[in-house]
Amino acid sequence: MTRKALSRVASISLATTTVLLWLVYDTHAANPDSNNSSNRLNHSKSSRAAFVPVNPKEGPKVNTDSSKLFYADSPDEPERTNKDDNDNNNNMRAWNCHGRNQRDLVDRMMQAKIVRTDSVQEVLNRVDRQHYAPNNAQQQSSPYMDSPQPIGLGQTISAPHMHAHVLEEIYPYLKASKTDSVKILDVGCGSGYLTAALGRWVAPQEQQGSILDSTKTGHVYGIDIYPHLVDMTTRNMQKADQDLLDQDIVSVQVSDGWKGLPEASPFDAIHVGAAAAEFPRALLQQLKVGGVLIIPVGPEGGVQNLYRVERLGDGFTQDDFRITELLGVRYVPLVQQPPPRAD
C-alpha cells in the first residue's frame, strides 16, 4: 500500500473512532475536580469518561472527505495546503486570498470558490475587518491578510477564509428556519467580527445584508470567557456596527463556552471559534431541532477537524444528531476558565 493510501486510511479511521460518543457515563461524576466531564460528549480515547460505541448502521456517523484541506487558525501554525492531494488548485488558494481592502479580499475568496453564496459575499463586504483585526506595520500584519492574527490572551481572530467557510455552512440553516425569532450563539466571540457579520444577517429585513423575511426577528448572542475580549467586541462594534448593539440585534457577555447560554436557548445556529477537546454536551442540548453547530474538535496541538452537527430530533440519542467532518484545522483551545494571573 502506498504512503498516500495509508494516509487516507489513517484519516478515515481517526474520524470514525473520534466519534464513538453519545451515551456518556461519567466515572468522575462524584468528583468535583473532574473538569465537568459529564457535560461533554466523549471525543478522545484518552478521556476519563466511559462511553458506549455507536453502531455504524444506526449513526451518528461522521461523513468524511479525504480530500479536505488543512486550515490553520492558530497564530503559530505554518500554512498548509491539501492533506492528501496537492492538485486541488481552487481550494489551495485559501491561503493566497490576501486583499488590499475588504472588497478585494472578498473578491479573491470568491475567485478561490470559498465564497459561493451571494448573501455571504454581501455580509463579508458589509462588515470590514479593519475594525476587528490588528493593523501592525512593524509585524507586517494587515486586517486583510488571509491568516489568523493574535488579539491577546493567546486568542486570535480567525482567518478570513475560515469566517467565509463558517458563514457558508450556517446560511442554509438560517434560511430554512421556521421560527419567528432566529437565535444564534457565537462561542468565543473574540474581537467580534463573526458576531457582527451574523448580526447583519438577522437584522430587520430593511437593513442591508439581512437574510430574514419581514415576519421574522433575530438575535446574536456573543459570549467569551475573557472579559477583556467581551469589551473588545463591544468597542470594535461601536466603530462601524453600533446599530446592531443599539437595536438589540447583538448582545455580548462573559460566559463559559463549554456551558453555552442555556437561558437563551434553543439556538438555530451555534458557532464555536476555538477547538474543544470533546463535543460540549451543553451546546448540543441547546441546539434547536433543525439547527446546526459548527465546531472544531481535537486536542490542542494535535489533529483537529471542523465539524457540522445537525440536530434531527428532540431527544438526545445517537439518532437525533448527524455529524459531518468538514475540514482539517488548527485552532486555539476552547478554555473553561481564564488562566491564573502571574504574581
From TrEMBL:
* Signal peptide span: 1-29
First-listed, main subcellular location of the protein, grouped into a coarse class: cytoplasm
Q: Where is the composition biased (Polar residues)?
A: 32-41
- Give the GO terms filed under biological process for this record: methylation
What Pfam families does the record tag this protein with?
Answer: PCMT (PF01135)
Show the segment(s) annotated as Disordered.
Answer: 31-96
Which keywords belong to this entry?
Cytoplasm, Methyltransferase, S-adenosyl-L-methionine, Signal, Transferase
* UniProt enzyme class: transferase
Q: Which GO terms describe its molecular function?
A: protein-L-isoaspartate (D-aspartate) O-methyltransferase activity
User: What CDD domains does its record include?
Assistant: AdoMet_MTases (cd02440)
Q: Where is the composition biased (Basic and acidic residues)?
A: 77-86
Q: Which GO terms describe its cellular component?
A: cytoplasm
Give the EC number(s) under which this enzyme is classified: 2.1.1.77
Q: Which Gene3D superfamilies match?
A: Vaccinia Virus protein VP39
Query: Where does the UniProt annotation locate this protein?
Result: Cytoplasm
Give the protein family: Belongs to the methyltransferase superfamily. L-isoaspartyl/D-aspartyl protein methyltransferase family.
- What is the name of this protein? protein-L-isoaspartate(D-aspartate) O-methyltransferase
* Species annotation: Seminavis robusta
